[in-house]
Amino acid sequence: MLVKKYLVLLTFAAALFVPLWWFINQNSSSDQYPAPTLTAPLSTATPGPGPVAPAPEVAKQLVPADQTMTIPILMYHEISTGPDCMWVNEPDFRSQMLYLHDNGYQTITLAQATELLAGHYDTSKKVVLTFDDGYSTFYDHAWPILKEFNQTATLFVISGLVGNQAYMNWEQIIFLDSQGIEIGGHTRSHPLLPTLKAVNAAAEIHQDKEDIQARLGHRITSFCYPTGKYNSQVVQQVQAVGYAAAVTMVQRKASSTDNLLLLPRWGVYQNEPLIRFTTLLQ
Ligand SMILES: [Zn+2]
Predict the structure, then answer these.
(1) How many domains does the chain have?
(2) Which among 81, 99, 121, 257 counts the fewest CB atoms within 10 Å?
């Protein structure tokens, strides 16, 4: 009888403890996430174009302290033919990746570029490809081409739009993360941050980061200001939540003298000749 009583008590305690443990884990701060690591693809993930080797390690070669290093950070949106002006069609994107491949360029993630710039390591022949908003055309059209040329990229996700029509779902994003594509934050609903009250801007930045980290199970360190718009308060908020780097839409090559939270990018748009693309790399 006594044993039965203890069993009931034990069951009751477990029933209380397990949900409590889950709740604490879901709500604890972002410090719980270890540094980003690559994990095996989820067996339940959308099959996609199949596994690929993660982005290769980046060689770290110190350069003299007085030498300024530069690196092109390219900005893409849709790899398709529309709907607005922010697209590059598949054949053009493939030609651009072929050019990088044939000319000895190595694509690295924004997190890797940040590490090289901050540590004053050599950035020659390195390029960062960034894709804003998390459109499903990245998964359907860009990813197979990146895989073909063993290239990598950084993808900025609007957590409130994940799974909506024209946007990737979490399974696809988690799969890409497992394949070495860097996932970064882009706010929860893509507002113009400087137009919001401070508390609302902070929530947009913070909640998006928490949403993504909870799905990926690790910390994210790169951010993109929606439409490239920011002010000093927004930059402080981005830094306060733990982002190491953030990109704008200022059109030029990034350099080691830039503020890592205000990195410029070159936009790549539709129907541009390959020669224009090659000039962005110089
Ligand atoms: Zn955007």
Answers:
(1) 1
(2) 257
Could you tell me the distance, in angstroms and rounded to a whole number, from the CA of residue 223 to the centre of ligand 1? 11
pLDDT reading at 258 higher than 60 = yes
- Global confidence as pTM: 0.81
- Cis peptide upstream of residue 49 (ω within 30 degrees of 0): no
How much distance in Å is there from the Cα of 80 to the middle of ligand 1? Answer: 16
Q: Which two tokens stand for residue 27?
A: 């709500």
CATH number at residue 107: 3.20.20.370
Cα-based torsion angle of the residue sequence 182, 86, 105, 179 in order, rounded to the nearest 10 degrees? 30
Residue 139 CA, ligand 1 centroid: distance in Å: 17
pLDDT in tens, 6-50: 544 445 444 544 443 443 333 333 334 443 333 333 333 333 334
Q: Is 177 exposed, middle or buried, given 0-12, 13-18 or 19+ CB atoms closer than 10 A?
A: buried
Distance from residue 227's CA to the centre of ligand 1 (Å): 5
Segments forming the whole domain that contains residue 181: 70-280
d(CA 15, ligand 1 centre) in Å: 43
> Token pair for residue 138?
């990245």
CA of 186 to the centre of ligand 1 (A): 7
Strand partners, 111: none
Cα(60) to ligand 1 centroid in Å equals: 31
| Within a domain: 13 | no
pLDDT score for 62: 93
pLDDT tops 80 at residue 137: yes
Residue 36 lies in a domain: no
Confidence of residue 98 (pLDDT cuts 50, 70, 90): very high
Distance 9 CA to ligand 1 centre (A): 53
pLDDT, average across residues 153-160 = 98
- 246 in any annotated domain: yes
